[in-house]
Amino acid sequence: EGKTAIELAETKVYEGKSEKCLSVLKSYRKTSQLIHAVLCHDVETTRKLLEREKLPVNIRFRDRIGKTLLSHCIEQHNTELVRLLVEHGARVNQIRVRLHEDTDVTIPLFHKCLCDNECLDIAKFLNPQMDPAEHKEKDQAGNTALLAAIEKGLSVRYIQWLIQVTRGSALVDRNADGLTPKELATAKNNTEVVKMIDKYIIQNVVQESGIPTLLLPQFSINFCCEEEITRITDEKTKKTLVELLQDSNDKYNMKKWLNFKEVGNYAEKIMRAASGGDIFEKEIRMKSSDGGLSYIKDKYDANYRDRNGFTAMTRAIVFHKFDIIEYLCTTRPMLKTLPDNLNRYPLHYAYALPEPESERVRKLLQEKNPQEIEKRVDKDGLYPADYAALRDSLKVQQILYDARTLNVYAQRGPPLGRWPVGALKDPPEEE
């Protein structure tokens, strides 16, 4: 008959039917008008509806992972509508949307700005509205915004901006294949990006005055490749990073972090101690009587993150080292917010454990500022609490097995500590 849903419902009301249905449909009329205005890129109508009707702007299409009004406008490169929606409360933090309409794979909202270089202005507008942690959120391949931009071959200008707004911290993040931004650019033969990254590192590590933007320890404590960092050459002086640091006054004592191998060996002992494993110190095999806690208290000096993205917190959780977890939560609370290469946070690992161990670890992690970690999702968009229902799954069993048997260089070997009671000692896929 060519009638709209409301017109049909009105007809039925006259017949003594569908009165409740009509009421519900009318309540959605303004919202439908807003959606229609946004889809038609009608800025003025959108503005009038938002200002006069005070309509909600955080609307999703189809379902809970469908596109939002904001993500649609980003995809369409409509900067004016993006600004308007954000000014009226459109959420930019902790939002994931479908990669495209034919999949259930999700990506962080900000990644919608990485479609091409035309979206750089939108990205620059959204950046100050966002929690800085959004730059660390990952897609299904474990790519942060910076890694995704390199993967997609965006311009050097765009990639450089992403490095600058994260003050270089994004240079030590890794994707699911364990590659850092520079390693990924090298693998893709993107020499322009590699040169730009090298130049950025030189300019921000070697400084005679002021606090360097980029501290050298970040590369060694995150197990970056020594040759790729220390052999970076300054185009003007033709000196390597090592030579430049030797010539500088180095008042921040960064030279001690130049020996990547030594730093790696030190970090491995930290990880073993956090796992409750045996520690080799000064060529003497020592067994810590308190399961590694005293070693951690005495030696822990940086937030080491190995090539898997694991920290001492991750290792302590999967080996049920409650005293170490409690100590790290108190002295190194930042560890609670550091994800692994697949964007799994310590709380994800806590929920993956069996009961009652899971509850005990969760209480320690959630004692202070729980909201900061409860809403973080992994690369697949799963919240930590979602892992509770997956404890017996092959996926979660593999996650725990990996965290116990992958060494700091992402190589398979014996467990770093003693197997927890009830832990799966064989690879799950071989069962």
Automatic annotation (TrEMBL):
Q: Do you know which PANTHER family this protein is assigned to?
A: ANKYRIN REPEAT-CONTAINING (PTHR24123), PROTEIN HOS4 (PTHR24123:SF33)
- Lineage of this protein's species? Eukaryota, Metazoa, Spiralia, Lophotrochozoa, Mollusca
What is the designated name of this protein?
Uncharacterized protein
Which keywords does UniProt give here?
Answer: ANK repeat, Repeat
